[in-house]
Amino acid sequence: MATGPQIKPARPSATIAMVDDDESVRMALSSSLRSASWNVIDYASAGELLGDTRRPKLKLVVADIQMQGMDGFALLESIKRWKRPIPVIFVTAYVTEDVRERAKNSGAAGFFSKPVDDAGLLALVSELLKQ
Fold this sequence. Notes:
Rossmann fold; five-stranded parallel sheet; 131 residues
């Protein structure tokens, strides 16, 4: 009995955290990431992400810088202390040279101003998840 070509199961999609206290931005960016077949978990705050039991599944974080409570820079510092730190890409509506420089010096994997260039974000996420 002949069998057809073996179809390999698709590799499970990476899980990305989308952290932004602006729901409309969070939903738009999550939708964009999902359209590229990634799993996305939405968080309205950095504290929500840090308290989530699903945290070990995450492969990458996209986070706003300006948020109530813990800001994106504090979130990045916290993630850098994890057993297996993951890349953090910042998005912000408040772009200054100081903020851009601070993001670069703090070890952010990327930096986008709002409104976010979806194609650029998807390309960077894809590149980071290949590593």
